[in-house]
Specification:
Elements: E1 2-4, E2 7-9, E3 19-22, E4 26-29, H1 37-46, E5 54-58, H2 64-67, H3 70-76, E6 80-84, H4 85-92, E7 115-117, E8 122-125, E9 128-134, E10 143-147, E11 152-156, E12 159-160, E13 164-165, H5 175-186, E14 192-195, H6 205-221
Parallel strand pairs: 4-5, 5-6, 6-7, 11-14
Antiparallel strand pairs: 1-2, 2-3, 3-4, 8-9, 9-10, 10-11, 12-13
Helix pairs in contact: 5-6
The structure holds zinc ion (ZN) (2 copies).
One zinc ion (ZN) binds near residues 63 and 157.
Length: about 220
């Protein structure tokens, strides 16, 4: 479960990745699709953390597979919810199209957002300093979270390992924006890549981001997307 010192992946392997950062503060990155709440709670307890200790859930974007677990966590913990300002409204209004809940054949419940995030904002989580990087393309308000000193990037659904990247053809998506976001990420020094789906990469995260960028740029140049 521990994918990096004091960072745990608490989600089921078939769900989106939910990470827990354990420091002076306890926070979650994303909340999962809602089917595995009890499993996540039991994993949290295995780490030695009580639900009442979770302070914040930071969302990488507004899609249902990353937010539906909120209904459970916000009810059972004192955690507050944070998301980029451009992805907040789909949550607060329970927008079935923008959250993609309709794709999952679900009706989303409105979720209260406590903290609106902006590009460049720093979130201090004890020993971790997370910088919000606005990376639109997969959704309007997609973000990545960058820990500069540790060279660590939570990449949501913007970039995945092995030259892959998030879809840009969903509501709120834009492929040119996605390519620009990948360009922005390729300038960072990343060793550890913690994506919203799939495996965690612990070395040479940069190379993965660069191959995603090259792949996306070639599709754009060839007019294939
Ligand atoms: Zn997504
Ligand atoms: Zn996803």
């Amino acid at each position: 479960m521990e994918v990096f010192p004091n960072i745990f992946r608490i989600s089921h392997q078939t769900d989106s990745n939910v990470y827990l950062i354990k420091s002076q503060k306890i926070i979650l990155i994303d909340a999962g699709g809602g089917q595995f709440n009890k499993l996540m709670l039991s994993n949290i307890k295995k780490i030695g953390i009580l639900p009442k200790d979770i302070e914040l859930i930071i969302h990488t974007h507004c899609h249902y597979d990353h937010i539906a677990g909120d209904i459970f966590f916000l009810k059972n913990t004192p955690a507050k919810a944070a998301i980029h300002e451009l992805d907040a409204e789909p949550l607060t209004k329970g927008n079935a199209i923008r959250t993609l809940a309709s794709l999952f054949l679900r009706t989303p419940e409105p979720i209260k957002v406590d903290l609106l995030l902006k590009d460049g904002q720093i979130i201090n989580v004890g020993d971790f300093e997370l910088e919000v990087i606005h990376t639109p393309g997969h959704s309007r308000g997609s973000i990545c979270l960058y820990e500069r000193e540790l060279k660590l990037l939570f990449s949501g659904d913007t970039v995945f390992p092995g030259g892959s990247f998030g879809r840009a053809d969903l509501p709120g998506g834009n492929f040119k924006d996605l390519v620009n976001s990948l360009l922005k990420l390729a300038k960072l020094n990343v060793m550890v890549l913690l994506p919203g789906h799939g495996s965690v990469i612990t070395e040479n995260g940069n190379n993965h981001i660069r191959s995603s960028l090259e792949m996306a740029q070639s599709l754009l140049e060839e007019g294939l997307i």
